[in-house]
Amino acid sequence: MHALHDTRALHYLAELSDAVDALATALGRPLALIAESDRNDPLTVTPRAAGGLGMTAAWDDDVHHALHALLSGERQGYYVDFGTLDCLGHVLTSVFWHDGRWSEFRGRSHGAPVDRVHTAGHRFVVSLQNHDQVGNRATGDRLSASVSEGRLRIGAALLLCGPYSPLLFMGEEWAADTPWQYFTDHGEPELAAAVRDGRRSEFAEHGWTAEQVPDPQHEGTVAASRLDWAEPAKEPHAGMLAWYRALLTLRRTRPELTDPRLDRVAVSFYEAAGWFVLNRGGLRVVVNLAGSAQDVPLDGLVRAVLLTSSVPNPPVPIPAMTSAALRLPAESVAIVEVD
User: Fold this and answer.
1) Within its chain, how far is the Cα of 309 from the centroid?
2) Cα gap 311→223, rounded to integer Å
3) pLDDT per residue over 262-292, tens digit each?
4) Where in the chain are the domains?
5) What secondary structure does DSSP assign to 95-143, as a single string?
6) What is the architecture, at CATH level 2, of domain 12-179?
7) Tell me, which fold does domain 272-338 have in CATH?
8) What is the pTM of this model?
């Protein structure tokens, strides 16, 4: 939507929002408009009566970038602005990392802050992977091609236990081995060649050779991108699928995890040690990104461990006088209830 230019006082998208609301009333069922934009502009989801465009929701790529850069260690391109626990904590509580701050990638300040009190978290669609972020990579490799299973499970937990509307990319839920490569079916040979050569030229600047970048017009590129539906029944894919199902079940049964009030979301972390805690009501999503086990401090006594990625070595509550800690294995996450 950032490519839609309208100089009228009543923007096309606000006009569209008004028309869709009228249609929803006529049909007797809700209809949604979800905007894909990288402007980080809260007015996108602000109601029309308050001067906004009135979209039901908008994509929030900053959450994806924060998770991807942190889990993978990549810092090239637009990932240069992301990758710290401070950044992750900010996007999980305040929607955008670039909320008016400087962007090294863009060479300018970008975005605007979201009103955490009056803006519901579910108005922002977030993902760990999607067709753009995977398909626009040189070889269409998924996050599972370069990140450990432990880190994949951490990413899934933070995505599905966060305050936003989660989007799952096909095959993500079982860590599909198949890539999602950019493919086309252009009938004009000149256009097909321009797209192919343009992608190879673009990725050559980042060290990729022409042979490494698949030809978008080749049938083999499409074939390689088709899901292997035998994978979900085999390990390690079956285990990852079970993890996603457990997270979704917990999200459905615990109202804290769908509470849209952003001002009730809090985080704590220690950058150097690599631990992170997401607070959702009486629940804590406790993360250890380090390569060895460690004790993660909490703000209350652990009443129950609801879910852990580290079976058969579950985390161990460590009592203290006025608080508690949780011993977590390397690269693992646990969701606990605290007093």
Assistant:
1) 19
2) 36
3) 999 999 999 999 999 999 999 999 999 999 9
4) 12-179, 189-224, 272-338
5) S-S-SSSEETTTTEE------TTTSBGGGEEEES--HHHHHTSSS---G
6) Alpha-Beta Barrel (3.20)
7) Immunoglobulin-like (2.60.40)
8) 0.94
